[in-house]
Amino acid sequence: MKEELAKRYEPAAFEQRLYDFWEKGEYFTPEVDPERPKFSIVIPPPNVTGRLHIGHALVNTLQDIVVRWKRMSGFNTLWLPGTDHAGIATQMVVERDLNKQGISRHDLGREGFEAKVWEWKESYGHQIIDQLKRLGSSADWTRLRFTLDEGLSRAVRHVFVTLYNDGLIYRSLAMVNWCPHCRTAISDVEVEYHDRNSRLYNIDYPVADSDRKLTVATTRPETMLGDTGIAVHPDDERYKDLIGKEVILPIANRRIRIVADAILVDPEFGTGVVKVTPSHDRNDYEAGLRNNLAQMQVIAEDGRMNAAAGAEYEGLDRFEARKRVVEKLEELGVLSQVKEYTHSVGVHGKCDTVIEPMISRQWFVKIEPLAKPAIEIVRNGAVQIIPQTWESTYFNWMENIHDWTISRQLWWGHRIPAFYCANDHITVSETDPASCAECGSTEMRQETDVLDTWFSSALWPFSTMGWPDKTPDYDTFYPTDTLITGFDILFFWVARMIMMGLRFTGKAPFSYVFLNGLVRDEHGQKMSKTKGNVIDPLDVIDEFGADAVRFTLAIFASGRDIPLARSRMQGYAAFANKIWNAARFAMMHLDIELKSAGSIDRDDLGIVERWILSRLNETTQAANKALSAFRFDEASNAIYQFFWHEFCDWYLEMSKPVLLGKHGTEADKQKSKRVLLEVLDRSLRLLHPFMPFITEEIWQKLGGVEPSIMIAPYPIAEEVLEDPEAERMIDAVTSMITTIRNVRAERGFAPKDRFRLYITANDRDANFFQEYAYLLTDLARLDAVMLNTEAPAGAHHDVVSGFTISIEFPPKEITKEQLEKTQREIEKARKELGVLEGQLGNEQFVNNAPPAVVQQAQARHAELTARIEKLQQNAG
């Protein structure tokens, strides 16, 4: 064997060294080889402003597991990484830095500000990439892309111009979601809705030339200054006679029309009367178009009231104006009621500013023609969304989709390739035009707006591979195979990639979309700095090692939200330590390397060796099947259970008598060593996608043919290794040993006390127990194993794995102290059992908890039930 492993498992001692080794060996970089089966996946590009958070750690761990598994399975594998320029977020960060210096972007001018942002990007934009490497991400960093790269910018411009020429991009005045803080329009999917405590104001509008009044309810009384109509339902008998007449708008003293609108008004809701502010509400905007109402904007782009709101309110922040308007309404005696009210308010997720619906001239994508084929390709199964429950959400959103606002009033991003001449004609071109296409004017100025960041991200799977050119990468690796990302960007990104991929390449950009859940705290609460429940992945990598963090995330990744606590990572750090110590033990007894070990003659093996190979084979089958279905939890749990319990707890213990020369021949010892080496090798390869660092460090010492475990073959199940008979008999042995140990402990006997075991078995099984009696005598600490012999009176009887067994214990008086101790143990077990019964009887827990957690609870329930029964027997 090569040099020994260090005595202690210290991941910091080798993680960075191994990552450098992988990078220098170019193991992450595939060759362009169309003859080999390929697997490709693109990273959801993190913001260039980003720092690794636990959500990044989850999605990148899951991607890396699949990538390493596919690479080891013989695929020409590309994991293409990159970062997103993140228009709003990056501009905010740089502006914040400038403000600290007393500088605004306007002081620098557009070109100067863009230069500052590029400077910031070069200084800090690599941070999250470095952090992803610490996690062990095996992405091909030689192909690292950025959404403002020259090639990607060319692809963006080509797509914009093509869509414009096809009539699918247009510029128009329309209602948009406006962020007064960022001073830009944002798309529908960027609006987050939060319940906020507010007030509902009932305001009386006098009917002109009448003593009647119409009462409206609103949470935004400041917008009434821009009302241009009052709407009622056309069939509402209370107001039919008023349709076409006018009311006097309080405060403004303007006459506005009463219109009939069956879409806007629900006669059963409130008073059945709705104020119409076409310039500051999306529904009112549509109603205004239907009823030919004027559009009157009273809130400016900065969120302050403008001149149209009246001199008394001009310049006031919209929320301050609300207070003033309410005071005025009270003074006028037209505020009939105010009540506390909780309702959903749209905010901009980037800055938590309340959105102001506003009519603005913007650029839009006509989305419905793009959405239809994207709906069909998911419906016919060519693109599968996993978990499948997300498909209905996808269809619902895509079938009710609005045109996409793609222009942003920012300076950082892809500047829209539209050019205006002195006569305001528009020329849209992939290259900067010298003159106007319509009138020939040479006085050209480019559109100042930039494109929504998600516009360039929508092209990510193919623009990163050199499209619109037919590059070797594009020909080899596009379309990609799989996308793994958070469910929260299903519409921001996934749907748009499908639409753009189909439109511009004629192919869906991927076949499978796995949507991972959110990482929450151990109580199921969303992590936030305010709550103080955030887990920083870099901190826990420092504390427990990257492998423990990765394995924890994988074993709880069922597609649902993940309840995560540091204690769970500590538990899987213990698993890593178990792997390390098991490998150290094995290597103390191994004097052969993998590359010179030779093949195994299964027919020449004993039953213990056949059993462990059979169990490893079933684990291999389970892991591959689970990974194929994106069941990361099932794959990691299968490997965990095998390695910890079957390999470490049982096989290593069973092999010791032979390895130490206490049983069997020298030939038996050599066969045992060979199987031990084989099982350790295959186990490490099974584990590698989940725990790449520790498996590489150990595997290097085993002397494999390949220079790195990450290019060694991933194990596949082999029918020849299946051995049901070996499994039946060794399972019987382990069950008997467990039963004897439990009964010994329950009766208060010391480990040194030895007993006789009586087994009733048919001739064939009796021969087995006679040959392998040493397993029982060594591991259960027995004097002897008696076959088909009548046990003495007073022996403990049991049925284990279909065999009747009896344990001959010497007489032992149960003292009062022992009896009291047993009663305390019974009460403690009953208490824990009650908690488990409550959990397992809770439908929400059973349906929402990770399957591994539910299975552990069920197993513990069965274990406690059996233990209570045994303790009660011992108590007499």
Walk me through what this model shows.
- With 876 residues, the protein is of the alpha/beta class.
- Helix content is 44%, strand content 17%.
- It is built from 27 helices and 30 strands.
- A four-stranded antiparallel beta sheet has the order 6-5-15-17. A four-stranded antiparallel beta sheet has the order 8-7-13-14. Strands 10-11-9-12 form a four-stranded mixed beta sheet, covered by helices on one side.
- A hairpin with a 5-residue loop joins β19 and β20 (426-428).
- α18 (607-628) packs antiparallel against α19 and α20 packs antiparallel against α21 (692-702).
- The chain is elongated and about 110 Å long.
- The model has no long low-confidence stretch (mean pLDDT 92).
Summarize the structure.
The chain is α/β, with parallel strands linked by helices and 876 residues long.
The Rg value, from CA coordinates, equals 35 Å
Widest beta sheet: strand line-up = 6-5-15-17
Number of strands: 30
The N- and C-terminal alpha carbons lie at a distance of 56 Å
Helix content: 40-55%
What composes the largest sheet? 4 strands, antiparallel
Number of helices: 27
In what range is the share of β-strand residues?
Answer: 15-25%
Look at the structure and give the mean pLDDT.
92
Q: Please give the oligomerization state of what you see.
A: single chain
